[in-house]
Amino acid sequence: MIPLVDLLAGHAEVAAEVEAGFARVLDTGAFVKGPDVGAFEREFAEFSGSAYCVGVANGTDALELALRADGLPAGAGVVMPANTFVASAEAVVRAGGVPVFADADDEFLLLDPAAVTVSENVWALLPVHLNGQLAPMEDLLDVASAAGVRVFEDAAQCQGATRHGRGAGTWGRAAGTSFYPGKNLGAYGDGGAVLTSDAELDRIVRELGDHGSSRKYVHDRLGFNSRLDTLQAVVLRAKLRRLADWNARRRAAAARYDALLADVDGVRLPRTMPGNEHVWHLYAVRVACRDEVLAELNAAGVGAGVHYPVPVHLQPAFRELGYVPGDFPVAERAAAEILTLPLFPQITEEQQAQVADTLAKALRNQGAV
Known about the structure:
Pfam families: DegT_DnrJ_EryC1
Radius of gyration: 21 Å
Family: Belongs to the DegT/DnrJ/EryC1 family.
Strand order of the largest sheet: 1-9-8-5-4-2-3
Number of domains: 2
Shape: globular
Keywords: Aminotransferase, Pyridoxal phosphate, Transferase
CATH topology of the largest domain: Aspartate Aminotransferase, domain 2
Largest sheet: 7 strands, mixed
Protein name: DegT/DnrJ/EryC1/StrS family aminotransferase
GO molecular function: transaminase activity
CATH architecture of the largest domain: 3-Layer(aba) Sandwich
Order of helices and strands: HHEHEHEEHEEEEEHEEHEEEHHEH
Strand content: 15-25%
């Protein structure tokens, strides 16, 4: 079986360092807000090119806390792509706002600036850096500036990616990222962070995530319990030291897939937007008869998957927003075609060749060529 993501292979490369770090924490008893948390925050901020980083419990909390900290008004609209994970929209609702969906461009499947409509009720844009590359931030910033609204970033899938040399969290007011185990920088459980270069926003996010407290037993605002666990910070520090190398290995693997699949009929390969350094969190091709092809791959031992089969605007949880099929044709078409192939830093050339051969055979069997 070739897994979609091999978490054990990544763990093997950091196991000794993580074990030593866990022992250090167990010896000190600093399980919450221990020194490894602060150290990771500084290291990840530097790695990302951001002034500040606040570790929180998960990526959804990171987005919510960033929006709350900057004063999202109740009922205000936040524009985001329809082709994203549901957490992007959940965070807006939890912060008191209303998701306003927009379509992606057909080539890169990133939020399309030409598809963004900024109505009077819209307060911010929330582009999603999908699959490992940044959205066209300079164009989206122009849209936001013309409309007088703010920009935040969903950076859950792009740790280490850049656009024109600038990383996530350096374009808008703040970025929320996730350290879910399958991410490029994944913890051994849930975790997340807010990146920002605004000192006041950093301060408020820290207070909100720690019960609204600036010092013990003084609660300046109504807050939450959303803190990055010290043991997870140990894992993330060990992995962060290897992230640039792991991302380079992902890029090499993506290039191998490009070559292996270049002459395979019926498959549309992913592309990197000019100006982006992609970190290939996901290698997502597009095919017809996707579900049938996926079933053949899985039956043959290839752990391919789908991200995401139902666009957020068509999810039952958001039915009350009034969107219907056909509202965002690019996102809806992509949702029916996307097929995510196995990709992780330790994947071998032999494994990738097997994936490519199995995909080509499945496409022929389904008449999708």
